[in-house]
Design a protein that fits this description.
Helix content is 42%, strand content 18%. It has 798 residues and is of the alpha/beta class.
Length: 798
Amino acid sequence: MSEIENKSLTLPLLALRGLSVFPGMLLTFDVERAASTGALDMAVNSDQLIFLATQKDLTADMPGENEIYHVGTVCRIRQQLRQARGGVSRVMVEGLYRAEAVSMDTDPKGYTAEVIKLEDKKDRMSGAKLEALLRSCMTLFEEYLRLNPDMVNEQILNILANPKPEFVSDYVAQHVHLNVDDKQRLLECLYPGKRLEMLCKMLSNELNIMQIEKEISDATQEQMTQNQREYYLREEMKVIQEELGEGGTVDDIDEYRRKIKGINASDEIKEKLLKELGRLQKQPFGSSEAAVLRGYLDSCLEIPWGIRTEETRDIAKARKMLDDEHFGLEKVKERVLQYLAVRQLAPDIKGGLLCLVGPPGTGKTSIAMSIAKATGRNLVRVSLGGVHDEAEIRGHRKTYIGSMPGRIMGGIIQAKSCNPLMVLDEIDKLGSDYKGDPSAALLEALDPEQNSSFRDNFLEIPFDLSEVFFITTANSLDTIPRALLDRMEIIELSSYTDEEKLQIAKRHLIPKQRKKHGLNGNQLRISDGAVREIIRSYTRESGVRLLERQIAAACRKAAGGIAEEKFKTLNLKEGGLEPVLGPVKYKPDEVRVKDEVGLVRGLAYTSVGGEVLDVEVAVMDGTGKLELTGNLGDVMKESAKAALTYIRSRAHKLGIDPDFYKNKDIHIHFPEAAVPKDGPSAGITMTIAMISALTGTPVRSDIAMTGEISIRGRVLPIGGLREKTMAALRAGVKTVIIPAENESDLEEIDQTVRKKLKFVPTDHVDKVLDLALNRDSSNSICCTPEVPSQTERVSVRQ
């Protein structure tokens, strides 16, 4: 040690980990680090003085100057004891006074520091406040000693023997368990009164924590005592039950164990179930946990482990069964028969995944049930409409009250076989909210590459779904997520034609409703003409649900008349339905007798099939406004603007005033304004209507058209052609203009419709102007468009 200047000393520095020492206090600690041992040796070989300061980072083995607090305590070494284990010394020091390190030397052989003594300063508070703080601190320390069993209550006597603010603040700070930062703040504070004030706040907070710890400890101890008491009573009850021959619980455990060992499952699954059984065996009688475990084991044992139904291999028998129960739907039947044929050649093939898409009432769900009967698989139907919680699919965790397996595993349990046919109905109507997306949960279940180890959240054990034949149904593909759609084979079920509805009614609906209402063939007779009139005038749908309801209404009328003995037989013929079914609900579309200017028939596709959609255009003197009415969507409005641009670009060739867009107002209207309309397929219809109105040329009344229009006049492909053409036939249309790219879709159209309609495919509006416009009755000066070359001539399909 050497004296540098007045009150400045160079002392050995020892960095403490998680410890602090206050003036006048004793501290015992172990010294192990080389730098600390070197500093200790320097102090022992000098005058026993050493500077102790706390390091900021407890994990630093060789802290730098910035990692050590500069305010510490100059101490005197009272005792040093070298222990037998290598290089460790136990040291006891006594704090002398506070000091601040002006500089530090972090030599690995031993730290040193140049320190300046820090004197306590006089408080700027009244003596009464200082006395109040002193008493409060002593009271809090006494309460602390009472709550802390590791402290000796006699320590309060040391304070009473020297009740000075300086001593009391340092003594309490040394013996109370505070974090390192709080103790450092107390050490750096040079005002005894301020230290007492800080210490009172810290003690109050520490006492609150200790009180909470005591309450938790007491509650835990009380629970342990109660559990021990219940255990002894339970053991006594078990002995009494055995004496009385009522050891039913033991028998249940043995029964569970026997069932678990008897299931045809993997060792991993059996081990999991036996583990849960062991937990059940340890549960007290009547506990809620035991009820949860019993429900879990019951659900797991209800799963048909290894139970399979034998599939039908007779394809002719399956075909006959499908034909007997459903008319039409040839695509679906062919796909199922192909699957059975492949099963004959490759028996190890896994289950399939089909998605039947079509309008309501077209037989999607019923054909799926018939497929189960034809293939010999057990059937289970899962309705997904309105499901918006992921747990509905994958199950709830068994820790929740009322938890159960998800709908997939619930269906397997209901089917009682590992290879059922599972119908996932209305998959397009799945919802999603903050609870999750159920469609995402279906990705694993429906993916043949992943579902061999499907895990339900409730069961928590793998189950092989690869043998399940999944059939999903939907009305639209628009709301099905792309990732889920990619896993399914799509089969579209289009609307029934009137002839198909007639055959369905004769073969299935009428016999079914007769039997349901207790009638025979002699009591109710319905002619083919009457059925056609019901289809045409009392229903307007893509399927046959409304048709079946009207037939049921006729059966009720017949049953009522026979029961009241008004008649014995009811014969329904065409033209005589109003007394039975009431006034006609839908009048057939009127066939216009003459060609009109600005009025064109378009074709639309709706959820109930095809519709004829008239377009009306009126041209008036004005300032070039384009008015669109009829409850139109944005896509339809954009189609009208595209058509107008095309007409402006061809105004000279069409014989239209080039400035018509400045001095004429054009109003396009779609009747039935209460019905929302949208889509691009009315583009060509609006184009022909505007050309007709601007040139004064009438449009043929026996022609209808559909197709998207571009600003260059190109006719682009559309959807729903089958349904649209059926609507055209009902409306008395003779010729239908369609996009050239839809020509291949004509193969899918019913043969009856193809025979009665003339189809004109085209790829440009110019090529069909002569066909659509009746120029012979026109007084306009419209010029004839350029005649296409031989290779460009419009092809007409009959």
